[in-house]
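A reminder from the course coordinator: this example appears on the midterm review sheet, so study it carefully.

Given structure:
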C-alpha cells in the first residue's frame, strides 16, 4: 500500500507541476512588423530654472577678482593680497559693503557649478571675516557658469572664469 501511495503522490506532484507551466498558447511574431515612424518630434530640452536664466548682467567696471584652480574652492596665495586690500577698504569706510560673486567655467553641470560658485564665494567670505570684516557687510551669491566674464571655450578663458568678483557697494 505504501508503494501505491508513493506512486499516487508522485503522479499528483507531476500533474501539479505541469499545471504551473505556461498556461497560454505562444504566439508567433508578426510576419510584417510595423515600420518605425519616419520622423519623431522630440520635446525641447528643459529650460534652466528662472533664477539661473535671469541672472543680472555683470558690471563692466573693473572690480577686484580672485581666481581659483580647476574644480577647487581653495584660496590661492595671491588671493590673500587682494582680499587684504578689500578688507582694508571695508574697515576704512563704515558704510561700505561687498558682494562676493562666485563664478565657474562652463565645464560641469549647471547645478554643480552653482554649488562650486557658492563654495568659492564662502571661502572668500570666511577669509574676510578672519580679517575682521563684520559679517553684516558681506554678501555672497553664486552665478555658477551663467556669467562668463571672458568669452571663449579654451583653457585660458576657463581659467579666467573660475573666479570671485568682489563688488564694492
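Designed residues:
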Amino acid at each position: 500500500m505504501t508503494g501505491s501511495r508513493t506512486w499516487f503522490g508522485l503522479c499528483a506532484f507531476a500533474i501539479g507541476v505541469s499545471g504551473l507551466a505556461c498556461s497560454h498558447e505562444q504566439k508567433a511574431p508578426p510576419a510584417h512588423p510595423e515600420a518605425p515612424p519616419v520622423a519623431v518630434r522630440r520635446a525641447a530640452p528643459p529650460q534652466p530654472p528662472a533664477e539661473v536664466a535671469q541672472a543680472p548682467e555683470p558690471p563692466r567696471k573693473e572690480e577686484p577678482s580672485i581666481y581659483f584652480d580647476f574644480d577647487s574652492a581653495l584660496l590661492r596665495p595671491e588671493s590673500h593680497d587682494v582680499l587684504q586690500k578689500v578688507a582694508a577698504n571695508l574697515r576704512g569706510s563704515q558704510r561700505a559693503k561687498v558682494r562676493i560673486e562666485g563664478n565657474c567655467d562652463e565645464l560641469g553641470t549647471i547645478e554643480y557649478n552653482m554649488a562650486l560658485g557658492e563654495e568659492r564665494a564662502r571661502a572668500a567670505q570666511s577669509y574676510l571675516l578672519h580679517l575682521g570684516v563684520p559679517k553684516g557687510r558681506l554678501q555672497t551669491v553664486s552665478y555658477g557658469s551663467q556669467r562668463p566674464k571672458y568669452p571663449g571655450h579654451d583653457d585660458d578663458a576657463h581659467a579666467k572664469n573660475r573666479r570671485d568678483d568682489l563688488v564694492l557697494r
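The longest helix spans residues 110-130. The mean pLDDT is 81.
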